[in-house]
Amino acid sequence: MRTTSRYRAAARMIAAIGVVSLVAACSGNGGTTGGGTTGGSGAGGYPDQNITFVVPFSAGGPTDTVTRMIAEPMAAKLGAKLVVQNVEGAGGTVGAGEVARAQPDGYTVLMHHIGMSTAPALYKNLGYKPLESFEMVGLVTEVPMTVVARKDFAPATLQDLVTYVKANAGKVTLANAGIGAASHLCGLLFQTAAGVKLQEVPYEGTGPALTDLVGGQVDFMCDQTTNTSGQISAGEVKAYAVTTPERVKSLPDLPTTAEAGLPKLQVSVWHGLYVPAGTPQEVVQKLSEALKVALADQKVIDQMAKLGTAPVPAEDATPQAHRAKLQEQLGTWAKVIADAGVKAS
Fold first, then answer.
1. Half-sphere exposure of residue 132, counting CA atoms within 13 Å on the CB side?
2. What are the phi and psi torsion angles at 124 (to 5°)?
3. Hey, is 81 helix, strand or coil?
4. Partners of 276 in the beta sheet?
5. Residues facing residue 233 across a β-bridge
């Protein structure tokens, strides 16, 4: 399986961000980033040790990339060292479950996406309850999705794609990163909007799925701009539309799904930070304030813009706005998933 420019670009971006992954546990300060001294004032001296950011998906993926963008300015604001740890598995539920069971002291923080709102409908024995097992810190960003295909795929437009998949439903392959992944959810919406049932090909992560798409092993998929912008710009995939009401500045020639004739296919992948339930409110507030500082950082704004997204407004980077968003999304996706008849094993 060959490496695409997506991974080379991701590597350069991660290096530029200056945040590194958690390395061997025996390393004294490897895998850390921070703004100098540890320790702090208020909230019982929080923080006075390293803070671990858990990403429940693979390194180099969209959620991991967003996490690394905000980690450095958050560390500087908190006066702490941050480590980023990837805990993959079961559509993000393994990592989320670990954070739900962690000590509620603010030293274990979860970055999760829209999957937090879909997991209860997908998994019978989830092991945690999104609204009860966590304190919300704040929303981070809403990432548009794109409908992309192998570059030699026959349909030229989104309308052509709908017509083609209806006529060839048994032959067309729709890739995703596994049940509950953003690409899977967007794929469900596509099939609902197009009125067709397709052969889905699940992968263990977005990276392998996109690699096979570029290589021509699968026909098309729906994935976040943070993962597809490089391939679209390089002409390595055929792009049909972006799944938001407005066009993406970094991909100005790509129409919206409404413009392209499929208005019911609208979804964005929102990200938020969580800590275990019972974490002191003073600690939650310190994390939320650090998040606001990170989202206002010009370097973060510029990095997100290159990937077709932007930080949420300051008023959404709050526990209250985050909880309201999660509650609304839990209801929305419960119906979509029930109608699709999808369940995770």
1. 5
2. -70, -45
3. strand
4. 134
5. none
pLDDT digits (tens, 9 = 90+) for 89-124: 888 899 999 999 999 999 999 999 999 999 999 998
Structure-token pair, residue 335: 């119906």
User: Is pLDDT of 307 > 90?
Assistant: no
Amino acid present at 9: A
Query: What would the two tokens of residue 10 be?
Result: 């991701």
Measured between alpha carbons, how far is 323 from 135 in angstroms, rounded to an integer?
A: 8
Strand, coil or helix: 169: coil
End-to-end C-alpha distance for the chain, whole angstroms? 28
Query: Which single residue is written with the structure tokens 């939650």?
Result: 284
Taking the mean position of all CA atoms in its chain, how far away is CA 14?
A: 16
Establish how many alpha carbons lie within 13 A of residue 231's alpha carbon, considering only the half-sphere containing its beta carbon.
30
d(Cα 143, Cα 63) in Å, to the nearest integer? 10
Q: What does the alpha-carbon distance between residue 335 and residue 145 come to, in Å, rounded to a whole number?
A: 20
Task: Give, as one character, the DSSP assignment of residue 43.
Answer: G
